[in-house]
Amino acid sequence: MLNVSGVSRSFGGVYAVRDVSLSVADGEVCGVIGPNGAGKSTLFNLITGHLAADHGRISFLGQRVDRLAPHRRARMGMSIVFQAARVFRGMTVEENVMVGAHGHTRAGFAAAALRLPRHQADEREIAAEAADALARVGLAEWADRPADLLPIGQQRALQLARALCARPRLLLLDEPASGLRAEERERLATLVEELRAAGLTILLIEHDVGFVTRLADRVVVLDLGRVIADGPPAEIRSDPAVLAAYLGQAS
Amino acid sequence: MTRRLGLAAGLLVAAVTLALPAVLDDSALAVYILLGLAAMVTVGVSLLMGYAGQVSLGQGAFYAIGAYTAALLALNGAPPLLGLVAAPVAAALSALLIGVPLLRLRGHHLAFATLAMQLILLSLAGQLDFTGGDIGLQGIPQFSVGAFEASSASVYAYLTWAGLALVMLITHNVITSRPGRALRALATSEIAAASAGIPVGRYKLVVFALSATFAGLAGGIYCFYTGYVAPGSFPVLISIQYIVMAVVGGLGTIWGAVAGAAAITLLVQGLDRLASLPGMPSYAPSVLSYAVYALVLIVVVLFMPHGLVPAVSRRLSRRRAEVPYR
User: Fold this and answer.
1) Contact status of A146 with chain B (Cβ, < 8 Å)
2) Comparison of pLDDT for B302 and B46, the residue scoring more
3) Which UniProt keywords apply (chain A) (predicted)?
4) Is residue B2 part of a domain?
């Protein structure tokens, strides 16, 4: 589904990501872990298109995407849950989720201004999908609240609902557990497990090793911008290079 | 409950709007028309700034483009209706063209660039022959459709407020829809909006053009009403005034734009009358009108940071013990 090969990106002559290759298969949950500064966020931004790679290629669904704008990649089916709360202010929870459906609906300014049938049909479809997505993450009764007043755990769930509303082929989660309390983290993990059970392909970038090894089928370990290990969680836990780079010091 | 109250208020406003031109005298009617035109531009400013989060300190430029377009067409023998239709179209096309480089800028940079855009346009209009230089264009014929000619000010009042109603309807329809949600989303985070599949650059360009369309329509009506246009009719202060109106009324509310335009227009009129009383120094009018923008802006930002309309509606909804939201 996703194929990253030989990708590098440097900032001011220092490599943040160096010659990284990884792939995510259909229906797989792939975790990427690494200590702070390992290049996780840079890699994430390269995949989503918010940063351009210096070298290497990224393909998605068999098509090369490394020159495509972020919104084009989103329309192909990459859906993102950001680490920083990127909840749209001044909009209700439901409206926030409805934005997720933007990529697979068509009604534009003219259709909206003139209230054409196209607009009506799209609105019905978007509202139904948003209600579905909100129910899936357990936010249904919050639908009419202002989104920016939600606690952080629910803001993350809201982002997840928005991502689901986009009919994702690949769900990208950037440090989804960071800043969450224990029970919020548990609820999020349960949600991700449900999505995995439903067959969704997920790329999970995360600092919390326990969270990743519990959810991922396969784990890629980054350190200083390079891949130092790639395998099932059990193998990763006992890999000496990983222990030295990460597990030994960080947790 | 809220909906029925809103409907009643809307009907009342509509009735008063329709009745006013019949009872006002010509000088009051002039204020009424200029108020409606200012509201039309301000609805666009509120859409651009309040909903989509983009700043324009040069909205007066599109007002001017609309006015000059309609004036030039009418003076060259085109039917006035064609001029009135061409005014918003020309403003929109200019916004699309200028917006491509300009909208790469954000925040203060975008504000300064739009301000510069208006200054350049004004000095061009003051230099070029076909725009009449500093003297401008005079003798613009009355607005007419077929054999019907708009000979009295009340016709312009109806034209203006019909235009305002149309602009408000379009804005309402846009913001409560898929493209409107996209605009409101990109105001918070362009990155998150792009990741939801929204082509951020294109949407910013379209909303810029849409706000320019409204200003252009207002400019078109203005040129037929006054019968002349000159660079002096569109000072930079006019663009600042639209922003003050939008902020005072409440950014990101449609009715706020109208309320803000009404409040500021009436305030400035009152001060003008005060400043021209016998015994006032000759510099009083300009000092008072400039100072009032600053003062009103500061007072509103301090005491009603969300503007008039949200402040009032919040108070009303609190009285009914509802959750205040928008």
Assistant:
1) yes
2) B46
3) ATP-binding, Nucleotide-binding, Transport
4) no
Q: Which two tokens stand for residue B86?
A: 């061409």
Secondary element (H or E) of residue B170: helix B153-175
Answer whether A169 touches B (CB < 8 Å). Answer: no
Q: Does B206 contact chain A (CB < 8 Å)?
A: yes
Residue B155 lies in a domain: yes
Instruction: Note whether ipTM > 0.90 here.
Output: yes
- What letter represents residue B117's amino acid? M
Cβ–Cβ contact B43 with A under 8 A = no
Cα separations (Å) of A75 from A157, A204, B215? 21, 20, 34
CA distance A241 to chain B (A): 35
Q: Look at A109 and B188 and tell me if their CB atoms are within 8 Å.
A: no
CB under 8 Å to A87, separation ≥6 — which residues?
A96, A147, A148, A150, A155, A158, A159, B188
Residues in chain A, overall count: 251
| Calpha distance B66→B287 (Å, rounded) | 29
Q: How many domains does chain B have?
A: 1
Task: Say yes or no: B39 contacts chain A, CB-CB below 8 A.
Answer: no
- Please check whether residue A79 touches B, CB under 8 A: yes
Q: Which of residues 160-199 of B touch A (CB under 8 A)?
A: 170, 173-174, 177-182, 184-185, 187-189, 191-199
Residue ranges per structural domain of chain A: 1-77+170-251
Helix (H) or strand (E) holding A59: strand A55-60
Alpha-carbon distance A67 to A92, whole Å? 34
Chain A residues whose beta carbon lies within 8 Å of the beta carbon of residue B167: none
Neighbours of B326 (CB within 10 A): 14
Q: For residue B17, give how far its alpha carbon lies from the nearest alpha carbon of chain A (Å).
A: 23
The domain of B173 spans 22-319
pLDDT value at B6 more than 60: yes
Q: Which among A44, A35, A39, A3 has a CA at the least distance from the CA of A21?
A: A3
pLDDT-based confidence at residue B165 (cuts at 50, 70, 90): very high
